Amino acid sequence: MENRVVITGMGVCAPNGIGLDAFGQSLLNGTSGIRHQADLEALKFSCQIAGKPSLKNVNLNNYFSNVQLKDLDSTGVVYGVIAGKDAWKDAGLYENMESLDWDSGVVFGTGILGVDKFREAIYKVDAGNVRRLGSTAVIQTMASGISAYLGGMLGLGNQVTTNSSACSTGTEAILMGFERIKSKKAKRMLVGSCSDSGPYVWGGFDAMRILPRRYNDKPSEASRPMSASAMGFVPGSGAGALVLESLESAKARGVKIYGEILGGAVNSGGQRNGGSMTASNNNAVIKCIQNAISDSGIQADAIDSINGHLTATTKDAIEITNWGEALKRKGKDFPYINSFKSIFGHCLAASGSIECVGTVLQFQHKKVFGNLNCEDLHPDIQKQVSRERVPLHTIDFESKIIAKASFGFGDVNACVIFKSYSE
């Protein structure tokens, strides 16, 4: 049991479902969480659709006190607290109101936090109303606000911090928590990431013209990873959270175990050799995957499925090439591969953590979840992967080892290797 790290709790606040049951059923059934957004239309966005969690049936008093809810105007904080507290409860852990839990900490990442609150603050300051900002303006807009909220709510006395690495943030956070437990500096770590929603987050991508513009009247068809007709990623938001724990601690507590983390790797392409602020250095991607495999103590042929980054851009075929080169596998020998962005879009800094929750759920369901909108598999991908390895619908398959990777702006990469749990 020494130094083994397992997953004992998960929570999610995603465009296609809040809570593990709703989220899991959506992935099983291929139910899209992408919707038309009236505010984007009113602001004349070219892309007027997005994946945004619906909070209309969520009682926020189950997650926040009345004092905390006063003036709360950060969707990222709300999503992150929902996912984080649900994961903590799912692991059989509870809020510690009287003392500190010195053995537990949190690494919860974000790309940008409290955009709407920051906008409100700018207007008040410019109008000379600085005293009307309120006492929560700082904590809602500082990047580490989400980990501060969760650390305080749960009474965590170990490391409480926030990471930020663009779209690889969530996967990187998981590896940071994994390494802290592996080195015996903590017994449990709540890990994950969140992303704000709304036009002030998504506007820059719309201006870059990398979002699909021709699907405003058919949003469920817009996100098309690995498709020949892909026209760009659909923006999304939300949060995912996992409780990582030493196997020794999990066994002592007698709790359920969703899976095990064998290892992983993070690196950067240095924006060299084809890498840039917005594109990956392919050699770095390959090296990241190979380093993750080596760190996990497995062979490449042990991986039986992949959850890719795969955003529905022209880079999808290149990503498949990189996976094939890293694993030295192609055709029918290529692992099953899917992209959950087909169902809920690209949730930016939250994407890695939300997708990791979905990846691990495949162990529980003994399935590989399907890919929406991929009937017309890109011809360059067809040259590398057998059609059957890119399932259109959920299939029965009992994965033993799944690789999950995320790649972010700034030419940064993260790859984690999950294993189904066995004694």
Overview of the structural elements:
It is found in: Cytoplasm. Keywords: Acyltransferase, Cytoplasm, Transferase. Homodimer. InterPro entries: Beta-ketoacyl_synthase, Ketoacyl_synth_C, Ketoacyl_synth_N, PKS_Beta-ketoAc_synthase_dom, Thiolase-like. It catalyses: a fatty acyl-[ACP] + malonyl-[ACP] + H(+) = a 3-oxoacyl-[ACP] + holo-[ACP] + CO2; (3Z)-decenoyl-[ACP] + malonyl-[ACP] + H(+) = 3-oxo-(5Z)-dodecenoyl-[ACP] + holo-[ACP] + CO2. The chain has 423 residues and is of the alpha/beta class. It folds into 2 domains: 255 residues, Thiolase/Chalcone synthase (Peroxisomal Thiolase, Chain A, domain 1, 3-Layer(aba) Sandwich); 125 residues, 3-Layer(aba) Sandwich (Peroxisomal Thiolase, Chain A, domain 1), CATH 3.40.47.10. A hairpin with a 3-residue loop joins strand 14 and strand 15. Helix 4 runs parallel beside helix 7, helix 8 crosses helix 14 and helix 11 crosses helix 12. It is globular, with a radius of gyration of 20 Å. The chain starts with a strand and ends with a strand.
